[in-house]
Specification:
Elements lengths: L2 H5 L1 H18 L11 H15 L6 E2 L2 E2 L6 H13 L3 H26 L2 H12 L2 H7 L5 H19 L6 H19 L2 H17 L13 H19 L1 H17 L12 H8 L7 H6 L4 H18 L13 H12 L5 H23 L12 H21 L2 H31 L2 H8 L8 E4 L3 H10 L4 E4 L2 H10 L3 E6 H7 L5 E9 L2 E8 L2
């Protein structure tokens, strides 16, 4: 590299990573409506904070709602202030958190090893399917991951620093834990504690913790405690019962929230979260680890083990594994090619070919969504598999970083520009926002007949809470007995039920996807 360019290498890398983050995390971030029940629900809570100015008590439709702490809501409110009350604002905390993770991983790899290893680690993390998927979702998982990544990086830098700044790096580590507790609760203290305990026991140096400035934990408590104390003072025992007992203790020890999964649930989840880099773990784990790498390993393995024992299991719970895995794999890519590396790339190529066969030739059997062409998927994946074989046979490991990053970026661009708009019409309630504005005033309540949760929460967000669910024919009969006529939305399968009810008539006025809007009234 020319000396003039080398002097500006850090700036070039930062600009390249910023561009990658924009394409993977921010490009058309609002290109699809809020998905599932959680996104519109979290977005609604943040909106109520933003509009009411009450940043202490989370509320859903005006009722205190204590399932999650406030950090995501606070940053979503900031997103609303900057970008408007929309999908962009709601997803802003996750995209921002993912970007912070990318740059922190680069900085960490640069300080521990060199610029290129840090760059490779950052690229691996950013282009992992699970990571950029959560970066584009309004959820609590990415803000927690950002806080725990800050904690990991600050700890590693402090641990390897022998100068006067060592103390401050550890103080920053404890502060990050405090912010993590505001992102998702006490688990932000528990996961690092278990990881560091395993690290100490494995090294046989239990007393080493005394050199980590443990009094700094007061900083983390000082950051997190004020909100917990204020919320308890304002809401009393209800906050403790719902958030501490129900949402933390009982969620871990029982299946009352309906997320029961087998103990091996996180094995396929991890494969998907880190894909297409999953199989790089094969050569990575064959290397001898130094102290820093040992800590990264413990930081990655603890969430996997901890949540495998949990009664409730969701994919996002182990998202904090991805940054330390990316650091370990980034160092591996900067090593000479090995037999285990080639094996890993061949397995990746075989996986791509398998995906092509499954989706291209058996799409109907696996319920491939009609919005996606199975034959196109097959052609693309076979091409990727062929290119990976070339990488394994003749090119250096670092080339894999560029190839996978470009492939994943093109995948995101194709999805956001061509596929998501099709899903938007059938899988979100956003299209109804404009359609209903042509039928009724904004403040009129629209009813949903036997809606799944994603329909109910979605329409409540887009209608500013002016939407209600009706879950039985008796409720419908009671409603239309009080009103001359009401506007309802139902899926086609449940709409058929209403046509068989006596003393009721209806008129369909609009249809979007498999849902219809209709006026319904009582027949005398």
């Amino acid at each position: 590299m020319k000396p003039r360019l080398y002097r500006h290498l850090d700036l070039i890398i930062i600009l390249a990573l910023a561009g990658l983050c924009y394409l993977l995390f921010f490009h058309r971030l609002g290109g699809i409506g809020l998905i599932g029940p959680d996104e519109p629900r979290y977005a609604s809570v943040a909106r109520e904070m933003y509009l009411t100015g009450d940043y202490i008590t989370p509320r859903l439709h005006g009722i205190p709602w204590f399932e999650k702490p406030p950090l995501m809501y606070w940053f979503a409110a900031l997103g609303y202030a900057m970008f408007g009350i929309n999908e962009w604002g709601a997803r802003f905390p996750s995209a921002l958190g993912a970007t912070i993770c990318v740059f922190l991983v680069y900085v960490c790899g640069r300080r521990l090893w060199d610029r290129i290893a840090g760059l490779l680690a950052a690229v691996i993390m950013a282009s992992s399917i699970g990571f950029f998927a959560f970066a584009r979702a309004a959820s609590m998982d990415m803000p927690l991951t950002a806080c725990l990544t800050m904690a990991l990086v600050f700890f590693l830098v402090g641990y390897n620093d022998t100068g006067p700044k060592r103390r401050w790096w550890f103080y920053a580590f404890y502060a990050a834990l405090g912010f993590g507790a505001l992102a998702k609760g006490p688990v932000a203290f528990a996961l690092p504690a278990f990881a560091l305990a395993g690290f100490l026991v494995f090294r046989g140096k239990w007393s080493e913790w005394r050199t980590w400035h443990p009094r700094g934990i007061l900083i983390g408590l000082g950051i997190a405690a004020p909100w917990y104390l204020l919320c308890t003072a304002l809401n009393g025992r209800e906050f403790i019962n719902v958030f501490i007992i129900n949402q933390n203790f009982q969620r871990f020890t029982s299946t009352i929230h309906g997320h029961d999964r087998p103990f091996y649930f996180y094995i396929p989840v991890l494969l998907l979260l880190t894909f297409p880099w999953t199989f790089l773990l094969i050569p990575t784990l064959r290397r001898r680890f130094g102290k820093s790498e040992q800590l990264m390993f413990w930081w990655a393995i603890v969430p996997f083990a901890f949540f495998s024992l949990s009664g409730s299991k969701l994919p996002g719970y182990i998202l904090p594994m991805v940054p330390p895995i990316a650091l370990l794999c980034g160092k591996e890519l900067w090593q000479p090619s090995s037999r285990s590396f080639k094996t890993a790339v061949f397995i990746e190529a075989g996986t791509m070919a398998f995906i092509g066969i499954a989706f291209g030739f058996f799409g109907n059997m696996i319920n491939l969504d009609a919005h996606v062409s199975g034959l196109l998927i097959a052609a693309v994946t076979f091409g990727i598999a062929a290119a990976l074989v070339v990488v394994a046979l003749w090119l250096t490991p670092s080339v894999l970083a560029g190839f996978n990053a470009i492939t994943m970026t093109l995948l995101v661009l194709a999805a956001t520009n061509f596929i998501f708009p099709r899903f938007d019409r059938a899988e979100t309630m956003r299209p109804w926002d404009q359609a209903l504005s042509d039928l009724v005033p904004a403040d009129q309540v629209v009813f949903l007949y036997k809606p799944p949760r994603w329909m109910e929460y979605g329409l409540q967000f887009y209608r500013y809470n002016n939407a209600r669910g009706i879950f039985s024919p008796d409720e419908m009969a009671a409603l239309i007995a009080k009103e001359p006529r009401v506007l309802c939305i139902a899926e086609d399968r449940t709409l058929e039920e209403l046509t068989h009810l006596a003393n009721l008539d209806l008129e369909v006025v609009d249809t979007i996807g498999n849902q219809s809007a209709f006026w319904v009234w009582q027949v005398k």
